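Listing S7. Sequence submitted for prediction.
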Amino acid sequence: MKRNRLPEKSRLVLFLLSSGSDEENMRCISKYLLERDASYEVKGLAIERHQPGDGETVLNIWNYSNRNPVEVLSRLNPGVMVTGDDSGIPYRAFVEAAKFLDVPTLLLVSGVTGRMPFSVENFKGGLWLAQHWRSTFERSQLLWASLRSTRYSPLQAAWFTVRLFVGKFYHPYLSGKSGCSRIAVPGDYARNLFIEQGVPPDSIVITGQPRFDGILSKSFDRTAFRKQLKLAPDKPVVSLLTDAQVEHRLWTARRRRDFISKVLVSFSELPEAQFVIKIHPHESPTDYQRAVREKGWDIPVSKDIPLHELINASDVVLTGVSTTGLETLIFNKPLIILNFYNQAEYIPYVSSGVAVGVDKARELPAAIRKVLRDPQTKEKTACNRETFLHQHFYLQDGKASQRVSNLILEVAKKRFEQPQEIQEGMSDD
């Protein structure tokens, strides 16, 4: 197969976008990178259909007539590719394509990284894959197109795909093992987990979390925001930040409805408080809104409520497996972790003593009253908070974007300093 040379010294930094967190990171890093050197260009490539493109800044893979990752990367010619996910099927397809084209890659861990032990619960992922068969098929097409264009034999490609599907049921199975040039992690906790999985320590760099830069330097008007949501100024606000448990293949839709029902029953036992429900970006608010209407309540239920404004205006925050728990701790707000279905602790909020855990729905009203009124509970969690945040997000100094930008430039040197070749045409099969 014939190979041609790419233009040397590409100044494009391409972000694969797997979530809203990736977009936030891209914006923060892009700002610093362009201030340092305006000759760079930053673009995002959205892989999910629900993630719309945004003109010149965010492209969408589904707008390409040929969605072969090798051909897409050949066309875009990035100097470096940054991804927040290296184990999901469509993202791994691009990592493999980048390695084949000798495009340096950076895995930027943008969310919660924790242990997800294998259990029977994980088999519910199979129900999700079957229900969303079209999405599963489309993702697999991206992978197969990439593997066909690289050096994988049919047998190798089949085994590769099987291992990735197994990884959908056991989250850390392949995370960090894709062969990215470097891995940027938010703190020591994530670094140690990667090392336990066999990732070479010298490939991992602790940077902090770019999208959290400047959270505490922003100005929030708690009173105005409560007024905007039509909340009483003299009653405590309890906010539920939902998890996309169904979409992450950890729950069935029936379990989510059961969870909503249990939480609302608990809320009804707390007339002294008022409530807000912020929906995860990957979830539909329909089930939550329907349940609230059936109760005859008029409380805010939306995915469009500004997250940081809401956390700042809250007196207690409820969540489960979510990075929003860490953001809550940054704001020094009481945190309650809901675990009604005996799931393994994905990240040690409760065992580290920075949050109150609630395993039974009937215990939730008492837990909320406890964190609102008991000074000892507040003091105990506050004492552990600083150490916990450093373990998970390194320095809260507003310079994570700078550290990641420097790492991107370091990774990109390989492409900038050497002429590269790309694959022209597909294999004859």
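Caption to Listing S7: primary sequence and predicted structure tokens for the chain studied. The two ends are 13 Å apart (CA to CA). DSSP finds 15 helices and 15 strands in the chain.
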